[in-house]
Design a protein that fits this description.
The structure holds 2 protein chains of 2 kinds. By secondary structure, chain A is an alpha/beta fold. Chain A is 23% helix and 31% strand. In chain A, the strands form 2 sheets. Chain A has a 9-stranded mixed beta sheet with strand order 2-1-3-4-12-11-10-7-8. In chain A, strands 5-6-9 form a 3-stranded mixed beta sheet. Chain A starts with a strand and ends in a 14-residue tail after the last helix. The C terminus of chain A is likely disordered. Chain B is of the alpha/beta class. Chain B is 44% helix and 13% strand. In chain B, strands 8-7-6-5-4-3-2-9 form an 8-stranded parallel beta sheet, with helices on both faces. In chain B, α5 links the parallel β4 and β5. Classes of the chains: A alpha/beta, B alpha/beta. At the A-B interface, α1, α2 and β7 of A face β1, α1 and α12 of B.
Chain lengths: 204, 294
């Protein structure tokens, strides 16, 4: 299947390498037309303000709003998907497609960044979570599935075709979260979600 | 149990900065311009390198008040510089909770033989290098990010290019050596053999590698990216130009779209005068900052 990694800034190469290891065909997305024909998109870690500004400057914000594939955001990517962002910049780009409230740098500055084991719901094997100036999920609306937790915080959530993590599964060797994403891409694809218009609509 | 300051956590922040522009700023106003232009981090400084060069005197860590004001005014990571070998300046910067420390040749060195032992810190460090051996010595000391040095405060890209050609060329050369030759290469580079072997096997440095020193235009930034940099530091090049905000945005866009000449042409248009600059070749050896570091 064809998936993309938003490649305007951040650790997109790490995501690409993981998805390729799992057999996906991966394109780098820097301009709206690069979304064409993709079944899924990863928005990587990076600086959410930088990524947001570069998306706006090249019309990728509108293109993503009309993108019908599965979207997976990690860290900065999760901030972009959230309904509400606390402690953002005044023009913080947030698509609001995932009904969660996140606080930017909610675990503190870099000296408070950490790695730890998180618990995947229904999986006895812990997952190593790397949290870098991570956003903290402060509210999860009804209907949003919590797939992993750290103490009392949700750290991996899903609703419909949107998946988001406050940590960086792309920085460890564990492939489970990326497998979840690709499984979700596969499900929406076979459900024919994109068949109606022969792919994506990209707004001019 | 949570672990803080592991190499993965330290180098992880550098991974997040990739493809971005880190801008030198000396005031809250400049920090806001940088964030608004899309900088992925700022470097809080007392003076930009061009002014350090002009004013002379001893260049030290910035006043904590300045660093704290800048931290309070932006949401992106804030870095700050410590003098080479000045581990107490580094302790102070860690206590201020800066996000990265640059152990920098732009400041006046505090130690003529030793760099800071960076393993003992929770805060990550970035260090400069001119060649592969210097990069690997810094990594052995615990640097979680590397930047090639260039010649800061000149607006002249030539030394940045020389240092990148040297580092990336040497990495390619290591890949062609046999295991026994790698031991000799380690001696030549004055670098630990295990790091030399890692680089030979993986074809890159084990940490994120940015470029610094002399970047003044969007084309300069894209040149560094095409030569293999993971991102760029821009010091004097932005706030010593005619229109810092416009130039900063253009350099951010050029760093993302570094392979798209049509976009590079568009963002290079109508920026006003770049920083005037100094030709590096005309500088006396004692005026060079790049030779600081051992």
């Amino acid at each position: 299947m064809d998936v993309g990694v938003l490649a305007v800034q951040g650790d997109f190469r790490e995501h690409r390498a993981k998805l390729q290891r799992l057999g996906a065909h991966v394109a780098e997305v820097r301009l709206p037309e690069h979304l064409h024909g993709l079944d899924g998109l990863v928005i990587p870690g990076g600086e959410s303000t930088t990524i947001g500004k570069l998306m706006r400057a090249y019309g990728l914000d509108d293109a993503l709003r009309s993108f019908e594939g599965t979207v997976f955001g990690t860290c900065a990517g999760m901030i972009l998907l959230a309904r509400d962002v606390i402690d953002g910049v005044p023009d913080q780009l947030a698509f609001g497609t995932l009904d969660i409230v996140v606080r930017r740098n909610g675990y503190g500055r870099q000296v408070a960044s950490f790695e730890t084991d998180v618990t995947l719901v229904g999986d006895p094997v812990p997952l190593r979570g790397v949290f870098i100036r991570a956003p903290r999920i402060e509210e999860v609306a009804a209907g949003v599935e919590v797939l992993a937790e750290l103490d009392d915080d949700a750290v991996l959530v899903r609703r419909g075709r949107y998946l988001a993590a406050s940590f960086h599964p792309e920085l460890t060797d564990d492939l489970r979260v990326h497998e979840m994403f690709l499984a979700s891409v596969g499900r929406s694809r076979s459900a024919g979600l994109h068949a109606s218009n022969g792919g994506l609509r990209v707004r001019a | 149990m949570s672990e803080f300051g592991t190499l993965r956590v330290k180098s992880g922040l550098a991974e997040m900065l990739k493809g971005g522009v880190i801008m030198d700023v000396t005031s809250v106003e400049q920090a806001r311009i940088a964030e608004d232009a899309g900088a992925c981090a700022v470097m809080a400084l007392e003076r930009v390198p061009a002014d350090i060069r002009r004013d002379g005197g001893v260049a030290r860590m910035a006043d904590p008040t300045k660093i704290q004001e800048i931290q309070a005014s932006v949401t992106i990571p804030v870095m700050a510089k410590a003098r080479i070998g000045h581990f107490v300046e580094a302790q102070v910067l860690e206590a201020l909770e800066v996000d990265y420390i640059d152990e920098s040749e732009v400041l006046t060195p505090a130690d003529e033989e030793h760099h800071i032992d960076k393993w003992g810190f929770t805060v990550p460090f970035v260090c400069g290098c001119r060649d592969l051996g210097e990069a690997l010595r810094r990594i052995a000391e615990g640097a979680a990010m590397i930047r090639t040095k260039g010649e800061a405060g000149t607006g002249d890209i030539v030394n940045a290019v020389r240092h990148m050609r040297s580092v990336f060329g040497e990495i390619r050369r290591l890949g062609s050596l046999s295991p026994d030759e790698l031991f000799t290469a380690a001696k030549e580079h004055q670098a630990p053999a295990d790091l030399v072997r890692w680089v030979a096997e993986n074809g890159r440095l084990p940490v994120v590698t940015f470029t610094a020193g002399g970047i003044a235009t969007p084309a300069d930034a894209a040149l560094c990216m095409q030569l293999g940099a993971d991102g760029v530091f821009v010091g004097s090049g932005i706030f010593k130009s005619d229109d810092p905000s416009l130039r900063a945005k253009a350099i951010v866009e050029a760093t993302t779209h570094y392979e798209d000449a049509a976009i590079l042409a568009r963002v290079s248009t109508g920026l006003g005068e770049p920083m005037r600059g100094l030709e590096t070749a005309a500088l006396a050896p004692e005026e060079l900052l790049e030779t600081r570091g051992w």
